[in-house]
Specification:
Rossmann fold, alpha/beta
Amino acid sequence: MKTQDRKARARPKRRAPPKISHTHKPADLAPVDWQRALRRQFGREQAFHWKNIGDEAIFSDFQVSNPASRSRYRVTIRGLQPGDNRCSCPDFATNELGTCKHIEFVLAKLLKKRGAKAAFARGYQPVFSELVLHNDGRRSVRFRPGSACPAALRKAAARLFAQPRGDLHPDRVDDLESFMNAAAKAGHELRVPGEVLDFVAGWRDAAHRARTLDRLFPRGAADWGRARLTKLALYPYQVEGALFAARAGRALIGDEMGLGKTAQAIAAAEILARHFGVSRVLVVCPTSLKYQWQGEFLRFAGRKARVIAGGRAQRQKDYARDDFCKITNYEKLDPDLDLITGWAPELVIVDEAQRIKNWNTIAARALKRIDSPYAVVLTGTPLENKLEELISIVQYVDQHRLGPTWRLLHEHQVRDEAGRVIGYAGLDTIGKTLAPIMIRRRKAEVLRQLPERTDSTILVPMTEAQMRYHEDNADIVARIVQRWRKTRFLSDTDQRRLTCALQNMRMACNSTYLLDQESDHGVKADEVAALVDDLAAQDAKAVIFSQWTRSHDIVIRRLKARGLGYVSFHGGVPSEKRPALVQRFRDDADCRVFLSTDAGSTGLNLQHATTLINMDLPWNPAILEQRIARIHRMGQKRPVRIVNLVAKGTIEEGMLGVLAFKRSLSAGILDGGAGEVSLGGSRLNRFMKDVENVTGRMGEAAEVAPAEEHAFESAAPNAGARSGGQGVAGDTGAVPMVPGEGRDRSAPATAHAAQDPWVTLAGLGRQLLGAFAAAHDNGAVHPWVERDAPSGRSSLKIPLPSPEMARELAAALARFIEAFQGCDSS
């Protein structure tokens, strides 16, 4: 016993190998050997759980689980050399080392078993053959023949799998199925793992997409108009981006901000839906953009998208619904991962993808676990600070594109003597590597002839007087809509009253002056004046559009008060005088403002202005773009700003939320002679549905600027105006000349066609009573009441109706008197 103890003490102790640094490569190791050694070292230190799930003791399949992370992977052991074995973990799929910590863990455990070293020395000699997926710098399928592989099958494999690497050639993918069938007919077992089938399927899908797109779009963007895949026109570069994304299948659109990445993603989704069977699209975006995406899908594709919101129970119901598109935010990816994977989206659109530049975040890890065949990733800043950020984003698109992270950083990072990263080198080669999956355009590349254009929407508040007009006319609209719901029919009179009421709602959004020509309660003109003040300080000029010349009147008052020069262009200006107005605006340095109705929305070149202000938005989007084209056009050499003033909580805001309304009114139903247009059949139905949508969406705080038809950069909406309105507390407001039914105080007589004189007379009576009451209330204000300051006495100034209406009123009164006298005599 003592002898044995002495021998044990005499036996030298086996020293543990020196620790390999994770940050500093040993000088005697190549980078690839260093990385393999790190995984070998780390794997042997782990306390993973493992079990044999195959049929053999050594060359078998093993399940390796990590109790800490609760992850579980399948390890296939075939030998001791790198590339012999397989693992289902993400690191093995991308590191191009032929090993990973899970494989090294299993090998370390197996080598302790009796007979393991001899088995590895003999090598793996299975009876069956198998196809394996190799990834040693280039992913490829290879054939590994078994000992019982028939000679004919070996001969066929020699033709199919090219030498010297033995890779399956991409052009021979279609022959692989016949090769597998030949093995089955010969009675020989050929094992094909799922990863091989997935890889081959991806090859086939890519080839099919390329052939289909080449057939549908042989001239690229030039064939887009013929395809009619989107409701709104796209710029050629946007079409190119959509086609690029569809062809790649999984792509990164890294265009600069303001070039319309959203439109490109939606167009790509339409291509994939129409021609490649995609029926479930998931949009992942910041919370603040969810409803904007919903609106954009409707505008560009005419598709309804469901915003995922609410509690877990509600979200579960939403994911159970059969929708084409669902929109969620980053924060809900992890808690809803089971719901998302259960819904199984086929296309995932990731907006503001810089949110996933760090794979260590919960949202980024959850996103990576969403398995979809197609993906479109959007970011204007794919690389902000570190190369690792780009790697993180690209790995979601194509985890193999950049190769292993360790190699990329080793080749491109520049370190100082202490090992700190001080810069990057050779980044141009990364761009070439990314070319098949990433498209990035700068504004200077695609807008060489057009300057920068910025669209912004300013939400302005309404005064109480404005809201009374607006609400009264909204009541008329609601009653007519209710009548239409019941009968699905509207008389010509109802149609005219409806269009007049809608028109009055829009006019009230500018100022009460547009309705009564007396008071001027409204904020928009003050906002315009503030904007013009800023431009005057910058020695710049502005074009201001409104559908109504009365809007010009209230703006002119403010311009005169500031001593600013202007011209007013409208349909009443004789054609021979119009060129002089344009020339004065162009040449007179003191003429700062060009006021125009839509009479000036075409044919005028006003590039000397840098700002265009829309006091009101036309129903027809084409007219809106015609307005903008007055200054944003060829020859413009300065940045252009488009400002849309939208009254908050009104029909104007509803127009932003339901842009389909513009489509149904594109013929100009309300923009010119609406009271004379009679609708019927399906056109009336569409019109009424859109009326319901617009008036039902008022006040939903839409954030999308309607001028974003070209998807340029949009400024954040302003919550209010810079200056206050002219509303007076307790103001009774001015009521229009021709009221309708109930509380219907619709519009001036000039805005109406023929009306019932009895209704008109009743309305005049109500107005007269209101004026009497205001005349005896010193705190009240009424446009008909005038007060003499010295004496304090009040008098009424009643505006007269039109001659036609006056004659109808007189005739109605005469008939009433005759009827009354007849009753009295009886």
